[in-house]
Amino acid sequence: MTARDLPVIAGVDGSAHxxxxxxxxxxxxxxxxLPLLVVHVRPQARRVEQEGVRSSEELLAQAVLRASRAAxxxxxxxxxxxxxxxxxxxxxxxxxxxxxxxxxxLGGFRSLMIGSNSLATASMARCPVVVVHTGRTDESExxxxxxxxxxxxxxxxxxxxxxxxxxxxxxAASRPGARLRFVHGWTMFSSMLSGGPVFDSGAAADAADxxxxxxxxxxxxxxxxxxxxxEPVRGSASRTLVTASATAALTVVGRRRGGESxxxxxxxxxxxxxxxxxxxxxxVPT
Length: 286
Fold this sequence. Notes:
By secondary structure, this protein is an alpha/beta fold. Helix content is 40%, strand content 18%. α1 crosses α2, α3 runs parallel beside α4 (116-124) and α8 packs parallel to α9 (268-276).
């Protein structure tokens, strides 16, 4: 199996958030021409409970029916491992193109913006993980309309993480009419740290824009059909990305490899974005 054949994995547990994740995963699989693997991780506490097995089978059957109604003909398979959810999804991510999870599951507190399993999976998976937020604070609210086709990617002006850029360009290319918005929050302090202007805010803004232009130049030639918009914004990087996520089909952030065994893969900016975003967020290992 080549990288182009690796499935899109959707983690489901029967919660409203996991059904939203499934719907998003179905759309992603169709856009990229990939198979779909629906995974329901059975809790270890149900090791000897036949009822738990039946419940899992019923849940997966419901998921397959939902996927087939949305995308008839989409190759779909299921899996029900017995494990901790984040551990199982992290293991399966070695042979996946993308793992898609809801922002919260059945076991989460309603006041939390993101569940521990979703956060752990995003921190440790070996492939990109999409955490699906709908921008809702309550399950009874109207679902966020998919009215924004653009893809937002957050990068540091001196970032060389090619995996993040590749994923973002491919995501934009797979969405007709989508622009790719490169959002970079800068401050005079970050300009100083990167060796740029320290006292001239206008010069610092120009330096940030030039750095973004250099960062995107090569891939603009590879993806000539993708319109690129550079948005250097003075202010907190995390706040800038969270704000931008409200008008994006997908927000993309990077995650440094290393520290995964301790769940420390997410930077403060990535963590804030994943936790508070108002739309789906893709976390890409670099």
